[in-house]
Amino acid sequence: MKKQLLFWILAFALLACKGEGAKKGQDNPESEKKAEFQVGPDQTTEDYRETGLQYAMAVQATLGKTLQQKIKGEGTLGAIEFCNLNALAITDSLSRELGATISRITDRPRNPQNRATDEEVKLMSRYREDLADGHTPEGLVALRDSTIHFYYPIVTNSLCLQCHGTPQSEITPEVYSEIQERYPQDRAIAYSAGELRGLWKVAFPKEQP
Asked: Does residue 13 fall inside a structural domain?
């Protein structure tokens, strides 16, 4: 069932904000040991990285396809309403289908539920340094209490800027007013194309069924 679901979801083009990946941490050897690991001859870090990426991209493809349809049919205002009412529900539904816990996290949240922890904020800072240095980041795998944690960057593109760019230029006054009404504590604006906006966070059991 999971493989069939992944096949059909990943058949859609990834049209929403795309994560470009994240490089391994490099400044603190001890933290690196906690982040990357080998788990034996049957499953390796790369196996879990691939699984985590599949899960994250499955959700991204579904959200991205629907978001594109909303923008095309109802404009950016329709996309804002869609995200406000359905994005978390769709993510939770796919998480249950895939047997994982999948979410988007950021240090500048639009929805407070997506706020990153202090540890995750540090990870985002490391990713930003990698992007600034011209490195191509990749997903990060960590093991905590027999649970695999996978992180993958979300990088803005031109489509994202309609809702996450600069007010009065990329974001029209009408759209910005709607964002403020639906998200009074919004901090997810003033991004530029190619900038790290957040991370996909995927948690799933070390031993897959």
From this structure: no
Could you tell me the pLDDT band of residue 41, with boundaries at 50, 70 and 90?
very low
Three-state DSSP at 94 gives helix
Specify the pLDDT at position 123. Answer: 94
The answer to the question of residue 52 being in a domain is yes
Does residue 65 contact residue 12 with C-beta atoms inside 8 Å? yes
Please tell me whether the overall predicted TM-score, pTM, comes out greater than 0.85 for this model: no
Written as six digits, the tokens of 179 are 């964002």
Residue 20 belongs to some domain of the structure: no
Residue 78 φ then ψ, to 5°? -65, -35
Residue 194 carries which side chain, given as an amino acid letter?
Answer: G
What pLDDT shows up at residue 42? 52
Number of domains the chain contains: 1
172 by Cβ neighbours in 10 Å (0-12 / 13-18 / 19+) ranks as middle
